[in-house]
Amino acid sequence: MRRIGVIGAGAWGTALAMAAARAGAEVVLQARETDVVDSVNARHENSLFLPGIPLDPAIRATTSMGEAAQADALLLVTPAQHLRTACRALKPDLKPGVPVIICAKGIEIETGSLMSEAAEAELDSQPVAVLSGPTFAAEVAKGLPTAVTLAIRDEALGRRLLAALGGRTFRPYLSDDLVGAQVGGAVKNVLAIACGVVHGRNLGDNARAALITRGLAEIARLGARLGARAETLMGLSGLGDLTLTCSSLQSRNMSLGAALGQGRSLDEVLGERRSVAEGVYTARAVTKLAAEKGVDMPLCQAVDALLNHGANLDAIIDALMTRPFKTETV
Ligand SMILES: NC(=O)c1ccc[n+]([C@@H]2O[C@H](COP(=O)([O-])OP(=O)(O)OC[C@H]3O[C@@H](n4cnc5c(N)ncnc54)[C@H](O)[C@@H]3O)[C@@H](O)[C@H]2O)c1
Ligand SMILES: O=P(O)(O)OC[C@H](O)CO
């Protein structure tokens, strides 16, 4: 695979463009913002979404989806709630058989669809893959060691994608569990907001560890209900990403939670940011999906109540801690 197209030039699309360029691909990066295109092409930096990190001068940016779509494989790196729209826009430009690799993490609010389900519904002639794992964009862009899960049903095509994207500092592991590779990456953003609240409100490291562990139980319950394999949820895209995102204020989701824990309002925090905190949207989507599927997810529900339904934080914490005692099971 000689040419890789990247749709979406936020921090993650830009970092993945760097990974593909390091692997030897010719990379075309599509951005919505003309100032991102100018910054990448003229100064080899994405000054809006990944400032201060030098990019490979061979990466070419464009605002044209059609131009980026003329590729041997395409990475879809828009925010999750915009992925379906991007697929619709791309469809006329895609050659049948060209794989699309979903790199967004989330669940569609409107439909409860995983990203692969939305892409497969819109792009019936493209093989769909999922790339997910513990990956802060800045670290990948700088070439720090990183490992991810790459899930795809067609193993031979998957091996070609590993070769096209992987390298000495970016190590993808192959899986055929598309559902499993998406559940962890979506739900961990919601749990990272909760861990941020714990941090911002000085509730202690015990509380954060409890949240990660009982959050993993929620991921496992939802995953099982949706058909994920348990081993995938214990891998890079599950436990790996949950651990990373719930342990570092580099995470936009955790830092958003920390600001809320310090008493700031969601509108105020979102108003200051250009970057996406997917957990805000996934909290709503996963709470709705869990209710429809009959899956108990009290932590995610609590985050949704705090973010989207004006619930009082002290009352939420109290309600979680005074639930009936129970056996420790998933
Ligand atoms: N940044 C990371 O470290 C990282 C790592 C792994 C996965 N991801 C995932 O990648 C996806 C993209 O995140 P990011 O960090 O690259 O974004 P970002 O926060 O750096 O930038 C925001 C992006 O949203 C785009 N955008 C804004 N409004 C839009 C609209 N109406 N339609 C389409 N696009 C719009 C912007 O053009 C920009 O590309 C998310 O699902 C995120 O969870 C991010
Ligand atoms: O900064 P966040 O919270 O969007 O997390 C980025 C990545 O998803 C971590 O794997």
Automatic annotation (TrEMBL):
Known EC number: 1.1.1.94
Taxonomic source organism: Niveispirillum cyanobacteriorum
Function as written in the Swiss-Prot or TrEMBL entry: Catalyzes the reduction of the glycolytic intermediate dihydroxyacetone phosphate (DHAP) to sn-glycerol 3-phosphate (G3P), the key precursor for phospholipid synthesis.
Enzyme class name: oxidoreductase
UniProt KW keywords: Acyltransferase, Cytoplasm, Lipid biosynthesis, Lipid metabolism, NAD, NADP, Nucleotide-binding, Oxidoreductase, Phospholipid biosynthesis, Phospholipid metabolism, Transferase
Binding site for NADPH: 12, 32, 105, 137, 252, 276, 278
Record-annotated active site: 188 (proton acceptor)
Homology family: Belongs to the NAD-dependent glycerol-3-phosphate dehydrogenase family.
Pathway: Membrane lipid metabolism; glycerophospholipid metabolism
Protein name: Glycerol-3-phosphate dehydrogenase [NAD(P)+]
Reactions the enzyme catalyzes: sn-glycerol 3-phosphate + NAD(+) = dihydroxyacetone phosphate + NADH + H(+); sn-glycerol 3-phosphate + NADP(+) = dihydroxyacetone phosphate + NADPH + H(+)
Annotated Gene Ontology cellular component terms: cytosol
GO biological process, one term: glycerol-3-phosphate biosynthetic process
One GO molecular-function entry: glycerol-3-phosphate dehydrogenase (NAD+) activity
UniProt entry tagged with the keyword Metal-binding: no
Pfam families attached to this UniProt entry: NAD_Gly3P_dh_C (PF07479), NAD_Gly3P_dh_N (PF01210)
Binding site for sn-glycerol 3-phosphate: 105, 133, 135, 188, 241, 251-253
Localization per Swiss-Prot or TrEMBL: Cytoplasm
